[in-house]
Specification:
438 residues, alpha/beta, eight-stranded mixed beta sheet, five-stranded parallel beta sheet
C-alpha cells in the first residue's frame, strides 16, 4: 500500500544505457523483495522471481555453469515461461546465500547485459566482507533501501496532509491547522516507525498490535545473530544490540563499551559491532577532530555514537509502550530526545545516502550532527519539543561562522539569519530547504 520513492531509482536503472545487474541492499524487513515485485509488475510484462535461500534447484544451476545464456535457458524452465530480455525482470532474492550466483553477475554484465537482473539480500553487507566470499567488482550497480520515511507513511495515511506537505516550498510559518494535522500524523509515525508491516498495521487497525509486529521483527534479527555467526560472536552482537537504549539514554550519547557488559573492551567487541553495522541494523556516527572538507578525513575513530535503523524498533527495544507519545509520561524527556535524534538521522541518511558526523567542544558544547552538502558543512541540532534553549549552535557559530545552521524541533518553520528551524515532521524536506537557502 505504500508508494516508495525508491521506485524512481529503479525506473532510472531500468532505462539507463549503462545498466548493469543491480544489487538492492538493506536490513531485513525494510521491504526489498516487495518493492522489486512491485517494480516488476508496474514496469515489465513479466517477473521471474527466484529465492536463493529456498530454491535449492536454482542454487545448483549456478554451480554447474557461468554461461548467462545457458542459465537463462534453465531458469526459464523453472519459471515456466521464456525469460524475454525486453519484457522480463529477473529477481534473485537472498543472493548472499549463493556465492556462485553473485559471481554470475559478472558474466551477465559482460556477456548478456540485455537482461534486467535485480538482486536483494538482507545480510549482503556482512557476507561481502566475509572471508571466502568474492564479488564482481565494477560489474554491478548498487542501491540502498531504508525504512519508510515519514513522508511515505503520510502519503498512505493522510493523502490530503501529504499533498500539503509536498506544497511547502517557502521557509515561512505553517498555518496552525496544517501544523497540528502534520504533528498528529507524525505522532502516529513515531509510534510505529518505518518498518512497513507495523506501519501498515497502524494505518489499517490502530496501535493495538503494533508492538507485537515490531517484536516479531526483533526476533528475526536475533535469529540472524545466531544463524549467521559463531555462538560467542552472536552473544556479543546481542549484547551490543540490547545496549542501544542505554547508550542513547545518556545526555552524552557517545558509545561506551562498559554499557555493553561490565569490563568490556573495544578489541573484544569491535568485530561484533562491525557485523551489526554491516547488517544495516545500526548507523554509526563518528566524532570529528576538525571542521574541514572533506569531513571524512577528520573522523575520530575512537569516539562515535550508534543509532538504531528505525525509531519504532528503538522504542520497543527500550520496552516503552506506545502511550509515551500520547500521554504526559514523567521522566520521558531525555529518551524522547534520543528518539528524535534517531528519527532525524533516519531521514537525513535516506535523503543523502551517506554518513553524518557529530562535533564536541570539550565539555561545553555538542552539535548532534554535522552534514556535508556539496562541500558545505552544516551543523544540526535536534530538539524533541518546543524548548530550543541551548548554547551549542551559538558556540559553533562563534568558532566557524557557517553559512547555515539547522535546528529541528516542534517549533514552526522559520528562518532567522543563518538559522533555520525545521519542524521534526518536515525533516524529509531538509535537502530541499538547504538548496533553497544556499
Amino acid at each position: 500500500m505504500f508508494k516508495r520513492t525508491i521506485i524512481n531509482d529503479l525506473v532510472a536503472w531500468r532505462n539507463s544505457t549503462e545498466r548493469k545487474p543491480l544489487i538492492l541492499s538493506g536490513a531485513r524487513q525494510v521491504g526489498k523483495t516487495w518493492i522489486l515485485k512491485v517494480f516488476g509488475r508496474l514496469h515489465f510484462d513479466n517477473t521471474a522471481y527466484f529465492s536463493l535461500d529456498k530454491d535449492k534447484a536454482v542454487k545448483q544451476l549456478f554451480a554447474t555453469t557461468n554461461d548467462p545464456l545457458r542459465l537463462i535457458e534453465q531458469l526459464s524452465y523453472i519459471h515456466g515461461q521464456k525469460i524475454d530480455p525486453k519484457k522480463t525482470l529477473v529477481i534473485f532474492d537472498e543472493i548472499q546465500e549463493c556465492n556462485d550466483a553473485l559471481q554470475s553477475l559478472k558474466y551477465f554484465c559482460e556477456d548478456a547485459p540485455q537482461y534486467a537482473i535485480v538482486c536483494a539480500g538482507s545480510l549482503l553487507g556482512v557476507y561481502l566482507n566475509h572471508p571466502g566470499q568474492s564479488f564482481p567488482v565494477g560489474k554491478v550497480n548498487h542501491l540502498d533501501m531504508y525504512p519508510l520515511t515519514f513522508s511515505e507513511f503520510l502519503e498512505a495515511k493522510d493523502n490530503n496532509a501529504y499533498n500539503y506537505f509536498c506544497s511547502i516550498n517557502t521557509i515561512e510559518p505553517i498555518p496552525d491547522y496544517f501544523f497540528d494535522r502534520l504533528r498528529e500524523n507524525f505522532t502516529a509515525y513515531c509510534i510505529c516507525g518505518g518498518m512497513p508491516e507495523p506501519a501498515n498495521e497502524l494505518i489499517m487497525n490502530g496501535v493495538e498490535n503494533i508492538d507485537k509486529k515490531i517484536n516479531d521483527i526483533l526476533r528475526d534479527y536475533s535469529s540472524d545473530f545466531i544463524k549467521h555467526t559463531a555462538p560467542a560472536t552472536a552473544n556479543k552482537i546481542d549484547l551490543i544490540w540490547r545496549s542501544l537504549p542505554g547508550q542513547l539514554a545518556k545526555e552524552n550519547r557517545k558509545f561506551v563499551y562498559q554499557l555493553v557488559k561490565t569490563g568490556a573492551r573495544a578489541r573484544e567487541y569491535e568485530d561484533a559491532l562491525t557485523w551489526i553495522e554491516r547488517a544495516g541494523l545500526i548507523c554509526k556516527v563518528n566524532a570529528l577532530t576538525k571542521i574541514a572538507v572533506p569531513i571524512k578525513a577528520y573522523d575520530d575513530l575512537s569516539a562515535f555514537k550508534i543509532y538504531c535503523i528505525d525509531q519504532g524498533i528503538l522504542r520497543v527495544l527500550a520496552e516503552m509502550d506506545a502511550s509515551v507519545y500520547t500521554t504526559n509520561t514523567p521522566g520521558f524527556a531525555e529518551f524522547k530526545g534520543a528518539l528524535a535524534e534517531n528519527y532525524v538521522l533516519q531521514s537525513l541518511v535516506a535523503q543523502y545516502n551517506k554518513s553524518l558526523r557529530y562535533w564536541t567542544s570539550g565539555n561545553t558544547a555538542e552539535i548532534d550532527f554535522i552534514l556535508s552538502d556539496n562541500n558545505e558543512i552544516i551543523p544540526i541540532e535536534v530538539k524533541s519539543d518546543v524548548n530550543t534553549l541551548g548554547k551549542s549552535l551559538i558556540e559553533y557559530q562563534k568558532k566557524y561562522s557557517p553559512r547555515l545552521r539547522i535546528r529541528f524541533s516542534m517549533k514552526n518553520l522559520n528562518l532567522n539569519g543563518n538559522l533555520v528551524n525545521i519542524p521534526l515532521f518536515l525533516a524529509d524536506r531538509t535537502k530541499f530547504f538547504i538548496a533553497t537557502i544556499l
